[in-house]
Amino acid sequence: MNNLYPLKFTQICKDKIWGGNKLNEFLNKEYSELPNCGESWEISGVQDEVSVVSNGFLKGNSLEELIEVYMGDLVGEKVYEKFGIEFPLLVKFIDANDNLSIQVHPNDELSMERHDAFGKTEMWYVVQADPGAKLISGFNRKIDKEGYLKYFKNGQLEEILNYEEVKAGDVFFIPAGRVHAIGKGIVVAEIQQTSDVTYRIYDFNRVDDQGNPRELHTDLAIDAIAYEYEANYRTDYQSLDNQSVKLVECQYFTTNILPLTASVERDFTDMDTFVIYTCLEGKYNLAWEDESIVVEKGESILIPALITNFVLSVIDGGAAKLLEVFIK
Fold it and tell me: Could you tell me where in the chain the CATH 2.60.120.10 domains are found?
């Protein structure tokens, strides 16, 4: 059997009522057939939307098929024991040309009970933001269910939501239960659990292309919301060249930022996990054993768990910025 190698995948682009054209402008995505590309799914194990390999001898095989064959060699033994052939993370880019709906995701327990699916905890890394662009993360005051319902029923929901003006490089952790929305003029990289369960709370009275109001999930959302307040919803971190710096660490994934200006050796010998690198800026060379591959801006690559040592290096004196994602 041929050895596993770092895998690239064919992007899965999604036309959205709120989408635009920034994924092409800022991340080199091609989607000429879509008028409003809102999302590009880079690596997906979501049922009926499973990513397909685009490079090497495994080209044309789905991620699910590869996990079935390579099991722990691909994703890590403990990951395989827990998730089987379902890849546990979804990596995507989102272009909000208009405000996304205000929504919430259920946790694992509630989602399993209602949908026989995992819940959704996620994080956002802001790739680009127009001046003054804002997103919603959590509440702006202490509140309970009764207080929330009072504002909601009076059409005053937006008064209790926490708005954050953002710029490129900002990071937000969105655990299951946190009310959230990406605002107009923002491009994000999103790392999330493999789940497509979303409860839409409010959609600014928009209608679809048939003139129908978009479906809301008001009753489902009430019991999914975590009625919590935090003083700071933004993730603070200090980026350091050629060092992997933690952005988010939770039971579902760890995400680091790694700015490259030289060469960096990475050793995952003790980790028992796949690693994903998503290239936000520039391009770089990934070398392992006696092989190498170039990864461009906007591309994501999945490094199998059995490849534990590799080198990331810039090309022709350039620079690159990477998100590094794995399961601890």
Answer: 12-224, 245-326
Best CA proximity match to 171, nearest among 98, 246, 82, 108 = 246
Give 12-224's CATH code, choosing from 3.40.50.720, 3.40.30.120, 2.60.120.10, 3.30.70.890.
Answer: 2.60.120.10
Q: Which one, of 274, 313, 301, 244, lies nearest residue 91 by Cα?
A: 301
Out of 3.40.50.360, 3.40.50.10490, 2.60.120.10, 3.40.50.150, the CATH code matching 245-326 is 2.60.120.10
The residue from 200, 214, 234, 266 that is catalytic is: 200
200 is known as an active-site residue: yes
Q: Encode pLDDT of 119-174 as tens digits.
A: 999 999 999 999 999 999 999 999 999 999 999 999 999 999 999 999 999 999 99
This prediction's pTM:
0.96
Strand arrangement, sheet containing 180-181: 161-165, 134-139, 180-181, 102-104, 199-202
Q: Which residues of 105-144 are buried (b: 16+ CB within 10 A; e: fewer)?
A: bbbbebbeeeeebbbbbbbbbbbbbeeebbbbbbbeeebe
